[in-house]
Structures are given as structure tokens and as C-alpha cells.
């Protein structure tokens, strides 16, 4: 046995360690791919892979696409935006079908009596500042919001995941109701426009900031599309509020402004800081402190200064 060990030691001494092949692990300890494991560049990508390539080109500057594609997958799916959309559709269906209505193209009494609707004389019920997003005034209202938030929210959530998209969406909803309570204090509020406009605002700032790193024609198209959508929706809201003189409780349009400002601040930080540690980004703290200051001012205004009953 001793002679066998001596011969093995002698053989090992003759080996030049520097000439050996490296261990099949990377810096993180993960197994390196062998040549057989490398993806075939000639193969046709699957549907999911093609979709992620499209999302990366649409949502991210060129220097971040490779990082995204390395970890891109559909697990978890964009669960936040899907659940929110299902909840809004379920509440609309409830008031359109199970609650007595003269017609359901434009809902009337059902939504104004809902415990979810924001009403200035019920603002002490604090949940209404958030829950109003589930109630919509008619088919056109809910279809427009659902289409926009699904078109924007699903790609955003695939890149930034549910927590960040949820934070931006809900910050827009809250900012919309608080802004309405300050600048249009006698009007009611329904619909998820605050959250949708927060997604639009964050996406718009992302497109502007990363414009030089994106495909120029694609960047121009994205910015123009957002401007056209926002201008059209604001124009319709102004017409309905000040020109059409609809009967009954007036619906505020100020939530659009609150939502888009929230998106251009909070949403800008979350959606432009892909793959970065937000807590080390001074823009994050500037936007968060500014948003908290606005919320505190709005709360004090509603307690002490609001002209609403």
C-alpha cells in the first residue's frame, strides 16, 4: 500500500497544474455549459422567447436587453395587472348585471350608491381613496382602462415584475383621488384612470430618458402614441365635464393629472432603474419623499381646509 501511494504521489508531482483544464464552474459556483449544452444558433426560437425579444426591444435600451433576456421567463406571470383587471371587470359586471339598472352602457344609480366610489361627503371612509378604481361608469370607461393597462402593464410587469408595477399603479390611484379632493373637491370619482395614467407617465419618462439608446423610429412612435392617447382622453374628459353638462353627480377628471404626475416621478424611478439597486439611487428617495409630502399635505387639507361637506 505504501509503495502504491508513493507511485501516485510521484505521478501527481509530474503534472503541471497550470496546464490543466479549468474546473467546470463559473465565479458563482454554477456549472459551466459544455459545447453540447450551448444553444444552437440555427434553431428557431419558441413563441415565449420571441415574445421576450419583442418586449426587450420595445421596453429596454440596447445595453440592458441581454441582461433581461438572460433571466426572462413567464414565471411568475404578470399576475398583478391580470388580477387587478379581473377585479375591476368583476365589480363592473356585478353592478351592470346583478344591480338593477335602466341600462348598462352607462351605469348610474348603482355606482353612485356603491361603498367603493369616492364621494366628497364620504371621504372619512378612507378606503374610498383606493377602492374607487374598481368602479367604472360604463362600457366605454372600463374597456378603455382595461385595454390600456393590459397593453402597458403586461410588458412592464414582465420586465419589472409585479411589486414595482403594483407600487406605481397604486401610487397613481392614490395620487389621483388625493389630487381630485384638493383641486376638484366637490366631484365624485370612479375608474382606474389614475393607475393607468401612472403606467403611462412612467413609460413615457422611460421612453424619453432612454430615447438615444432605443431604435429611433420606435422611440418616436412610442412617444407620439402616448401623447395622442393622453391628449384624446383629456379632451374627452374636458368635454364631458365642462361642455356636455351631464346631469347628476359630476365625475372629476383631475385623477388623470394626479396619476400621470405620480407615474412621471415614482414610475420614472422604478421603470428606468432596471437591474439597479433602488435604495442607492438618490432619485428614488427624492421621488419618494416628494410623494409622501404630497400625501401628507392632501390628508391635512381634507381634514382642515376642504370645502366639501
TrEMBL record:
It is an enzyme of class 3 (hydrolase). Residues 24-43 have a biased composition (Basic and acidic residues). GO terms for cellular component: membrane. Keywords: Hydrolase, Membrane, Protease, Serine protease, Transmembrane, Transmembrane helix. It is found in: Membrane. One of its GO terms (biological process) is proteolysis. The active site is at 193 (nucleophile), 256. Residues 24-45 are annotated as: Disordered. Involved in regulated intramembrane proteolysis and the subsequent release of functional polypeptides from their membrane anchors. Known substrate: EFNB3. This is Rhomboid-related protein 2. It comes from Channa argus.
Amino acid at each position: 500500500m505504501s509503495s502504491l501511494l508513493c507511485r501516485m504521489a510521484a505521478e501527481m508531482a509530474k503534472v503541471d497544474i497550470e496546464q490543466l483544464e479549468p474546473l467546470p464552474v463559473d465565479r458563482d459556483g454554477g456549472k459551466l455549459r459544455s459545447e453540447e449544452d450551448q444553444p444552437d444558433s440555427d434553431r428557431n426560437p419558441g413563441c415565449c422567447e420571441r415574445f421576450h425579444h419583442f418586449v426587450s426591444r420595445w421596453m429596454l435600451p440596447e445595453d440592458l436587453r441581454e441582461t433581461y433576456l438572460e433571466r426572462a421567463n413567464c414565471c411568475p406571470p404578470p399576475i398583478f395587472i391580470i388580477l387587478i383587471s379581473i377585479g375591476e371587470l368583476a365589480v363592473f359586471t356585478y353592478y351592470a348585471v346583478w344591480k338593477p339598472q335602466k341600462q348598462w352602457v352607462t351605469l348610474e344609480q348603482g355606482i353612485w350608491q356603491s361603498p367603493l366610489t369616492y364621494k366628497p361627503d364620504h371621504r372619512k371612509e378612507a378606503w374610498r381613496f383606493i377602492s374607487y378604481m374598481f368602479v367604472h361608469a360604463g362600457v366605454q370607461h372600463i374597456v378603455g382602462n382595461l385595454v390600456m393597462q393590459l397593453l402597458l402593464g403586461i410588458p412592464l410587469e414582465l420586465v419589472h415584475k409585479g411589486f414595482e408595477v403594483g407600487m406605481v399603479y397604486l401610487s397613481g390611484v392614490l395620487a389621483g383621488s388625493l389630487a381630485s379632493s384638493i383641486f376638484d373637491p366637490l366631484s365624485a370619482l370612479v375608474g382606474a384612470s389614475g393607475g393607468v395614467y401612472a403606467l403611462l407617465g412612467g413609460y413615457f419618462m422611460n421612453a424619453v430618458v432612454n430615447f438615444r439608446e432605443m431604435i429611433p423610429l420606435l422611440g418616436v412612435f412610442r412617444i407620439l402614441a402616448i401623447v395622442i392617447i393622453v391628449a384624446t382622453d383629456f379632451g374627452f374628459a374636458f368635454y364631458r365635464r365642462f361642455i356636455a353638462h351631464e346631469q347628476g353627480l359630476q365625475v372629476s377628471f383631475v385623477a388623470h393629472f394626479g396619476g400621470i404626475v405620480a407615474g412621471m416621478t415614482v414610475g420614472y424611478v422604478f421603470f428606468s432603474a432596471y437591474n439597479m439597486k433602488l435604495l442607492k439611487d438618490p432619485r428614488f428617495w427624492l421621488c419618494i419623499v416628494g410623494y409622501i409630502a404630497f400625501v401628507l399635505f392632501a390628508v391635512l387639507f381634507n381634514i382642515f381646509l376642504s370645502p366639501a361637506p
